[in-house]
Here is the input.
Amino acid sequence: MQKILRGMMNTMNSVKPPRMTALRELHEAETGGPFSILIGTILSARTKDESTTKVVKVLFSKYKNAKALANAKIKDVEKIIKPIGFYHVKSRRIIEVAKIIDSKYKGIVPEDLETLVKLPGVGRKTANCVLVYAFEKPAIPVDIHVHRISNRLGLVETKTPEDTEQALMEKIPKKFWIDINDTFVMYGQNICKPISPMCNVCKIKKNCKYYEEKTLKK
Here is the structure.
């Protein structure tokens, strides 16, 4: 796995150093505490990283913590997060989550998967993102990029992100889990795209099932 992750980073740096993912930016930011990462992950669904980063920055400049966001008016939050998709639904969702974190957990985001997935709108991917980016705990958040690339490489043969997560957990040593989402997402956004992946520049194509099959078809 180390060879794959290194090959991905070398490929991206040889083409153009990629910008950080939205969640990595939140992690690196001064305000990048667990609550901002939880809310940022919820907001990032079906939204470009650039939009998520800008919106979260503005949102947390006004609402510093769970208590503040819990007491926010929906219309005020909608105005801030309007640039992202499904802002009507997401504004209600993040306020609802903020109220639970504030009242039930005294403003502190839980650090375990089982508790996180009980929050409204928080599935395994979001919960795993919080574990990785907020608490640096080993987990494998599987989004469309991780699912696609894992199957293209031949690391797994799965139909759903949930199946991919389980398969990767069984196959990949735990010490690499934290790096998988961040690296695979950047690679999926910049190199191994859904349509017309840049196989010509990829430094791990010799170990790629997708590339091998594509070459044989020629």
Summary: Residues 87-104 form the longest helix (18 residues). The chain has a mean pLDDT of 92.
